[in-house]
Design brief:
single chain, mainly beta, Chitinase A, domain 3, 2 domains, five-stranded antiparallel beta sheet, 9 strands, disordered C terminus
Length: 169
């Protein structure tokens, strides 16, 4: 049995996303992220490729080009409206508001600023336009069960990386 990360191994990680310019931690996980390597694409390919061959206790840093993940920043997804048009429960920095376009397709917008007169929301991913580094710590490596391989992760768990990234400020 190999104690290194390879395809069809169950892996648990802690990770942070760090802004290269400011050094600020933009994203962190509250609990370890578990997945089956080579089966679940919950993480960027650059990250999963950098994990191959790593062992428990290894800490790696992977620079990520957010343009490849999210595209260019789109300023047409930034809207400012009069504060009286926005319900009070949405008047909080970091609040996610889901809106639909004219085709009924949902998109999340994050409240980025407000004052006595206006509120601004941004539909770009919070990491869009930033240079970031993923810092990962390998916590667990073991043989994945058949059920885990089929699901791509721990049975009964459903890691949603997008939800984690949406909470980034």
């Amino acid at each position: 049995m190999s104690d290194t990360i390879e395809n069809e191994k169950f892996v648990e990680l802690n990770y942070k996303v760090i802004d290269d310019k400011t050094g600020d931690v933009l994203v962190t996980v509250d609990y370890p992220l578990g997945y089956v390597h080579g089966v679940n694409d919950v993480m960027n390919e650059q990250v999963t490729n950098a994990l191959v061959g790593k062992k428990v206790g290894d800490i790696i840093e992977v620079p990520i080009d957010t343009k490849l993940l999210y595209g260019e920043r789109d300023e047409s997804l930034v809207f400012t409206d009069a504060i009286e048009n926005v319900p009070e429960e949405f008047r909080e920095i970091g609040m996610t508001i889901t809106m639909e376009n004219d085709k009924g397709e949902p998109r999340n917008f994050i409240v980025t600023r407000f004052d006595d007169k206006t509120l601004t929301v941004d539909g770009n991913n919070p990491l869009c336009g930033r240079d970031v580094t993923f810092k990962l710590e390998v916590l667990t490596i073991r043989e994945a069960t058949d059920d885990e391989i089929e699901l791509g992760g721990a049975v009964g768990a459903d890691p949603e990386l997008n939800e984690i990234l949406e909470r980034a400020e």
